[in-house]
Each structure stands twice: as C-alpha cells, then as structure tokens.
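Here is one chain, start to finish.
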Amino acid sequence: GHKEADQRVQYRIRIRGNRHADGFGLPALSIQPHEYGQDLISLWLRLLLGAAAGLPLGRAVFVGLDGKSGKSETVCMAVPPNPNAVLDSLVRLFVAGGTGLVPLFPLASHAYAREMIKSGDESKAMAKAAAAFQGSPFAPVSDLSNPWIKWAVRGRDPLNSGDFSRCADLVYRPILEASIR
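Its structure:
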C-alpha cells in the first residue's frame, strides 16, 4: 500500500494584544473584533497556537456585536483537549486552498455550523447559510456584500457543493463546541 509521508508542521507564534488573568489565575487572550466570523476564527487560531506553544491558556474571550440585534455579544472559548489535532486539520484546509477556492465564508459558514449543532437539520442549516451568504433588504450585511468574496465566487453558488458544509463544519464546529456563552 501507499504510505503518506509524515508531515509535521512547526508553529511559531507571536501573540499581540492584551493578555490578562481570567479570574481563575489563567491568562486569557482578547482582541477587539470588527467582523464576527473572521475575528472569531482569528481568536480561535490564537488560542490554539498559544496552547500548542505551551502557553498556560485556559480560554479566550471574544467581544463583538451581534449581527441581527446590534447588541454586544461575548463568547468564551475553552482550549480543546487536543489543540494540535485541530490545528492540523486547519493547516490541511489552508493547504487545499492553494489549489482553488475553499468555500469558507464568515457569515454563511458560521450560520450553517451553528444551526447544525442546534437542530441537526441540514436543510434548515443550508437555508440559514444561504440567507447569511446572499443577504436581503432586511439583512444587508452578508458574505456577498464583501467585494473580495463577491469577486472570488463570480456569480457561482459555492454553497451547493459538499465542500461548503465540510469546510463550515471543520472550522466552526470546534469553535462553537468550545464556546461557553
């Protein structure tokens, strides 16, 4: 049989921003977010990298605005049991992106994963993802309102591929499962 080469990734990390005690004596990371989905991923990566580098991190705190209500929202994310395994899957997704479009969109992917965790209903999750991706007169902020995403998809519907649900699940499910609201 064919054996895949053992590919190990070494991570170097430089953490910027505030590091403060979380009330339990463990340092926490925090950032000032501006776009919910992207910044949630950014903070998640910082938490994973810090934990993999051996920093004594217990959780990360995300503060942002809820897209629907406009009210502030706080999400605490705990370090997963095996941050290196989560990082490995994310690195593999990143490498796959070098050969084409990775259908991962901040709002649609987050909406899909959240609904799948909540209800497990694929059709409901895809409907939520489509609404977040395309927007509406009542929800003008969407993934397609981002000019870079609009250019990347160029009129195609990337949500109809199986890769969309796989990517959304791979990236956002661990974030949502590690989240304590």
